[in-house]
Write a structure and sequence with these properties.
The structure holds two protein chains of two kinds.
Chain A lengths: L1 H32 L3 H12 L2 H18 L1 H10 L1 H20 L6 H31 L6 E2 L2 E2 L27 H25 L5 H29 L5 H5 L5 H14 L8 H22 L2 E3 L9 E2 L7 H28 L12
Antiparallel strand pairs in A: 1-2, 3-4
Chain B lengths: L1 H42 L2 H34 L2 H35 L1 H4 L1 H30 L4 E3 L5 E3 L4 H4 L3 H30 L3 H37 L1 H8 L11 E8 L4 E8 L2 H7 L21 H30 L7 H9 L2 H18 L2 E3 L3 E2 L10 H32 L7
Antiparallel strand pairs in B: 1-2, 3-4, 5-6
Classes of the chains: A mainly alpha, B mainly alpha.
Bound molecules: CIS-heme D hydroxychlorin gamma-spirolactone and protoporphyrin IX containing FE (HEM) (2 copies).
Chain lengths: 357, 443
């Protein structure tokens, strides 16, 4: 049961990052590359039409996590208190940027909301990467120091940063150089993904240029990936043990690799769905590889006193999990149906769809 | 410790208050949009379609606000109420997760299609998307009230040695005797809000002599919906809720009604009075003897427990706020019934559209259903104190033990600032939409 729910929730989260990921990426591209008003408008629209139905995946993942792994939910949400609230604020700024830019027709108004959309998309991509970095790095569960703990064993509290910015101290903050690297990986990946989305959904005048942009960013991504793997190994020598014990898990890193290699050939594809598929593989492979390397741990402990949180020591009762799997399956099927209906009715380029007025 | 709880509670109260401003309109308005669209399908008169699309535009702005303020609500269970989440997550997580899976997806997927898909879908399917949006929003109300009902009156659980609540009976969550009355009352109350909004925009157009055709349609529809829902909110659903409170939360009931001392021969109903917590009595009281006993038990002389019958630590901790909230809700409910009856009467006599006094009154009534809805929730939530899960888990035991008050105060201030901005933008945009009028919908 625990394993079932772990897989379901992980999949929902991955879908969230694939879907909302493209509109985060769209925001990043919007911030740096959209210059003409016509392009800005259509790019904002390609995110604005969909952000809400994409964000529901986050709400669903949150709700299911709460239901299936309440102890984990409580521990992580309170432990990462400040970054999470910042994420909430950024989500708000992004949404109102998208919804409000087209409401009044003068440049200053549009500039304000474009900036709000672009900057918060960028920061959100960074923060989500940092979050993943924190999960793989682990935290000082229980706030253990000098032989005593300040919290119950499964609670902790992290400040935003520690003056040393090092992941190797006993009290790393949320932001250190390691989690920042993962944050940059996330920004670059989502930017590639967003560029592919714009090319797929719009006829904007910068589409050609965006292919080159994606190609170059892909090079940066390779570099960052290598750096991150080396530093991960330094921080936690055990980090790849899962893959040697269970070689079939290597499928996930391979998917990541396929996505990256595919993206290098981006300019050769006539069909715009192919590059988008490759960036989807990068996101899917990246997140699943990280989770697979930890499994069954979901939050490692950096001290040896308090055990890591796993899917087994944080889960709800068996009865609860099994009734939930009943309605959960029905819910997931419905969800798939809505998703397909919506995508079919909204397929094709969206340039001419009416938005706002 | 004390101020830790204080800021956590203040932040929750502030953010939920702000959130609930929006869903109440969403839920009520989605019903009225379905109605307009249905009239259009039946009669093929263009103005009904314009009305549906006009309100969908207001709906969309409102919905965005509901979504962006709703996500912080869900997160806050984990961030500020970690201990509560840990202990009860395997129960309330069920209903919260079902809300996400069954209602939010429905609502948000089909809202896009309603707004952008009229041409691609054709009229029948377009109507169907409106119905699905309506179902989605009412389903949200159902699941969130199931969550709240469990906190007010826990059922179907077992408490383990380590203090964790585990679910033993899933069905019980939805057959909870607290749920159905609360749901019906709450949904009707949200129809009251939307009816007043629709009627007030109508009155505004008539008074300004602009879009008068629409003005009349909105006013008429608003008054009819408003009259029916205002009556149903008070009776039977309000009454039914009150009976539940006496039965399951007698201490809360005594405080709501302002009964400091138990009266042997039947309780009086208080119309006006200010709780004096030092002398434990109501100042400047105006009351009618024995009515409360009759309303509650249909027996003039039945005794109702006053606050003197309960231990200090079983009573809600903010009795004046609870008492006022309850009396404001009920008082406003009475006023709504009065105003809407009057308006309906003149509508029937075909005089309403020229009666400026009533039109002004309807136009300025808009904030009050919001206040009634919010004070209704304050009654429920303050009455539940000092417990998070009634009778079982105290509020002070539910907060995040690891988040210090400095952090909570910081985020509280941030939310206040951000929500002020949101509120301002919301008003500007809705104002602009109303100003442009329904005609601008037709291209
Ligand atoms: C337009 C809004 C509105 C109006 C006019 C009324 N109510 Fe109400 N009331 C609500 C909106 C509301 C609400 C916001 O919807 C509540 C909060 C929780 C709930 O389920 O509904 C509520 C709760 C609520 C409760 C439960 C309190 C608790 O849980 O402790 C009672 C006993 C009443 N109401 C009674 C009444 C009566 C007798 C009314 C007579 C006029 C009335 N309400 C009018
Ligand atoms: C139906 C879903 C709801 C749930 C699950 C819920 C849950 C909670 C929780 C966990 C708290 C914090 C603990 C406390 O101080 O009691 C709380 C407090 C509060 N809630 Fe609700 N609430 C819900 C709906 C609402 C609504 C719609 C409102 C009003 C608009 C509201 C108003 C309040 C207020 C004012 C407090 C603070 C009470 C105090 O400070 O004593 N709640 N609620
Ligand atoms: C603590 C309590 C609450 C939580 C955790 C909560 C959570 C949420 C969340 C996460 C959303 C965004 C959904 C999306 O992404 O589409 C939302 C919107 C919504 N909520 Fe709440 N909510 C609470 C209280 C309430 C109450 C009391 C009601 C009504 C009875 C309500 C009704 C709605 C509705 C209808 C929406 C759809 C958006 C809108 O209409 O504005 N919520 N809520």
């Amino acid at each position: 049961m625990e394993l079932f729910w772990f897989i379901i929730i992980a999949l929902i989260l991955v879908v969230f990052f694939i879907l909302d990921g493209y509109d985060f990426g769209t925001g990043i591209i919007h911030l740096f590359y959209a210059k003409k008003e016509k392009d800005k408008e259509v790019i904002a629209k390609s995110a604005g039409l969909f952000w809400d139905s994409n964000e529901v995946w986050l709400v669903a993942a949150g709700g299911l996590l709460f239901m299936a792994f309440p102890t984990f939910y409580a521990s992580v949400f309170s432990g990462f208190y400040l970054p999470l609230i910042l994420v909430l604020w950024l989500i708000i700024f992004r949404a109102i940027g998208l919804e409000f830019r087209s409401q009044f027709n003068f440049q200053m108004w549009k500039d304000i909301w474009d900036t709000s959309f672009g900057v918060s998309s960028l920061l959100l991509a960074l923060f989500f990467g940092i979050a993943l970095g924190n999960i793989v790095r682990g935290v000082n569960l229980g706030g253990f120091e000098n032989g005593t703990s300040i919290h119950e064993p499964h609670y902790f509290f992290l400040p935003l940063w520690d003056a040393s910015f090092s992941p190797l101290t006993t009290h790393p903050g949320v932001i250190d150089w390691f989690t920042l690297i993962i944050g940059f990986i996330s920004v670059v990946t989502l930017a590639i993904h967003g560029a592919n989305w714009i090319v797929l959904k719009t006829n904007s005048s910068i589409n050609k240029k965006l292919k080159t942009v994606a190609f170059r960013l892909n090079g940066v991504l390779v570099l960052l990936t290598i750096i991150s793997l080396i530093s991960w190994k330094t921080i936690n020598p055990q980090s790849f043990a899962n893959f040697s014990d269970r070689p079939y898990l290597l499928i996930f890193p391979l998917i990541y690799l396929t996505g990256i290699i595919g993206t290098f050939f981006i300019s050769r594809f006539k069909n715009d769905t192919i590059p988008f598929t490759f960036s989807t593989l990068i996101i899917f492979g990246g997140i699943t590889s990280s989770l697979a390397s930890l499994f069954p741990v979901i939050l490692p402990s950096t001290n040896s006193i308090h055990p890591a949180l796993t899917i087994y020591n944080t889960s709800a009762s068996n009865y609860g999990l099994s009734v939930a799997s009943g309605w959960g399956v029905i819910g997931l099927i419905l969800l798939l149906v809505y998703f397909i209906v919506q995508k079919r009715l909204m397929k094709g380029k969206i340039d001419d769809m009416d938005y706002g007025h | 410790m004390e101020d830790m709880i204080f800021y956590d509670r203040l932040q929750f109260a502030f953010t939920i208050t702000f959130h609930y401003v929006f869903p109440q309109l969403t839920m009520g308005l989605s019903l009225m949009i379905v109605y307009f669209k249905w009239r259009y399908l039946r009669e093929k008169v263009e103005k009904y379609n314009d009305a549906a699309k006009f309100f969908m535009k207001i709906f969309a702005i409102n919905f965005t606000m509901g979504v962006v303020t709703g996500i912080p609500m869900e997160f806050q269970f984990g961030t500020n109420w970690a201990k509560f989440s840990e202990l009860t997550g395997s129960i309330i997580g069920q209903t919260l997760a079902m809300e996400g899976l069954f209602s939010f997806f429905l609502e948000s997927s089909f809202l896009v299609l309603f707004i952008f898909g009229e041409k691609r879908l054709g009229q029948k399917l377009h109507f169907l998307t409106a119905v699905l949006v309506f179902l989605g929003s009412w389903a949200s109300g159902w699941f969130i009230l199931a969550t709240n009902a469990w906190m007010q009156h826990p059922v179907g659980y077992e408490i383990l040695e380590n203090g964790k609540f585990v679910l033993t009976n899933f069905k019980a969550l939805f057959t909870n005797p607290w749920l159905l009355p609360a749901f019906l009352h709450n949904q009707l109350a949200s129809v009251v809000t939307s009816a007043f909004v629709v009627a007030s925009i109508g009155a505004f157009y008539i008074l300004r002599n602009k879009n008068v055709e629409f003005g009349k349609l909105f006013l008429k529809t608003g008054v009819i919906f408003g009259l029916i829902s205002s009556i149903l909110v008070a009776f039977p659903t309000g009454d039914w809720n009150a009976k539940n409170v006496v039965k399951y939360q007698p201490a809360a009931f005594a405080a709501m009604e302002g009964i400091f001392e138990t009266e042997e021969a039947g309780a009086e109903i208080v119309l006006i009075g200010q709780p004096n917590m030092v002398e434990k009595k109501l100042d400047n009281k105006i009351a009618v003897p024995n009515i409360l006993s009759f309303l509650t038990y249909q027996d003039w002389n039945k005794q109702i427990a006053g606050m003197d019958q309960f231990e200090e630590d079983e009573l809600p901790d903010n009795i004046p706020a609870l008492y006022y909230s309850y009396h404001i809700m009920v008082g406003l409910g009475t006023i709504f019934i009065g105003l809407m009856s009057l308006a309906a009467f003149f509508l029937w006599r075909k005089k309403l559209y020229t009666m400026n006094g009533i039109l002004w009154a309807i136009m300025f009534m808009v904030p009050f259903p919001y206040i009634a809805n919010l004070t209704g929730w304050y009654t429920a939530e303050l009455g539940r104190q000092p417990y998070l899960v009634y009778g079982l888990l105290r509020t002070s035991e539910g907060i995040s033990p690891n988040v210090s008050s400095g952090n909570t105060l910081f985020t509280l201030l941030g939310f206040v600032a951000l929500y002020m901005l949101l509120g301002l933008l919301f008003l500007v945009l809705v104002g602009k939409t109303i100003h442009q009028g329904p005609k601008s919908q037709t291209h």
